[in-house]
Design brief:
By secondary structure, this protein is an alpha+beta fold. It contains three helices and eleven strands, in the order αβββββαββββαββ. The chain folds into two domains: 65 residues, Antifreeze-like/N-acetylneuraminic acid synthase C-terminal domain (Type Iii Antifreeze Protein Isoform Hplc 12), CATH 3.90.1210.10; 123 residues, no CATH class. Strands 5, 6, 7, 8, 9, 10 and 11 form a seven-stranded antiparallel β-sheet that branches. Strands 1-2 form a two-stranded antiparallel sheet.
Length: 236
């Protein structure tokens, strides 16, 4: 082997050693990245906006994978966690679902019944009444005969709200004895005992108007018997 051949062999060996060194370096970088990133897990991202207090379904989410160490311990990693839950706030498209963004839908207790009525969105809800809230239900009635003063009554105190439905447009020719036609209403579902359920049904059928007043959280909302009915002459 002459000197030129020896140089060629040496250069070839050096090239092989450099390639092996580069390969080892790449493997080291990959191994270091894997050790920093860690294993990947499933997470769920919202495909569209979800309104507050709306039922959560699997169709609202898309599955993605991301490193476990980058995912919050509060993140939803199994869609079974959203079954029977509602959104507690406005959820935005692209957000990762977290457990504190949802809660269980309020359920009936022993002796309670569900009843739903339409409430004027402008005067009776104002966007602040949510599932689980307590409200006082007020109804206004015309005088029983000519000359009798109209009355406002607390029909039910501390009614528990089970669900707040979707804003619904009312028909233009909907009968409205008060003379003020509501254009939009929201179905509100209550959990009530039998007597209070009858009171709500009576008010919806015969009252000129039904309104809800939100009771502050933790407030017993006790109403004195003399304060349950109001007529204008009480202020004279």
């Amino acid at each position: 082997m002459n000197s030129r051949q020896r140089r060629g062999v040496i250069l070839l060996l050096l090239s092989v050693l450099c390639a092996v060194g580069a390969f080892v370096g790449v493997l080291s970088v990959i191994s270091d990245a894997d050790s920093k990133v860690g294993p990947e897990v499933a997470a769920y991202r919202l495909k569209r906006d979800v309104a507050p207090y709306t039922d959560l379904t699997s169709g609202q989410f898309e599955k993605i994978t991301m490193p476990k160490r980058w995912l919050s311990t509060n993140a939803v990693t199994d869609l079974a966690d959203v079954r029977g839950k509602i959104a507690v706030t406005q959820l935005r498209k692209g957000s990762l679902m977290q457990r504190d963004m949802m809660e269980a839908r309020p359920q009936l207790k022993a002796g309670e019944q569900e009843i739903a009525i339409m409430i004027d969105a402008a005067t009776g809800v104002a966007g602040k009444i949510t599932p689980g809230a307590k409200v006082n239900v007020y109804a206004t009635f015309a005088g029983k005969k000519d000359g009798d003063a109209p009355q406002s009554k607390v029909i039910v105190a501390n009614a528990r709200v089970l669900n707040v439905g979707t804003l619904t447009a009312l028909e233009p020719d909907r009968d409205n004895r008060s003379g003020r036609a509501a254009t939009e209403a929201v179905p509100i579902t209550f959990a009530l005992n039998t007597l209070d359920t009858q009171r709500i049904a009576y008010a919806e059928s015969f009252a000129e108007h039904v309104r809800l007043a939100l009771v502050a959280p933790g407030d017993a909302g006790t109403i004195r018997p003399g304060d349950r009915t109001y007529t204008l002459d009480k202020d004279k």
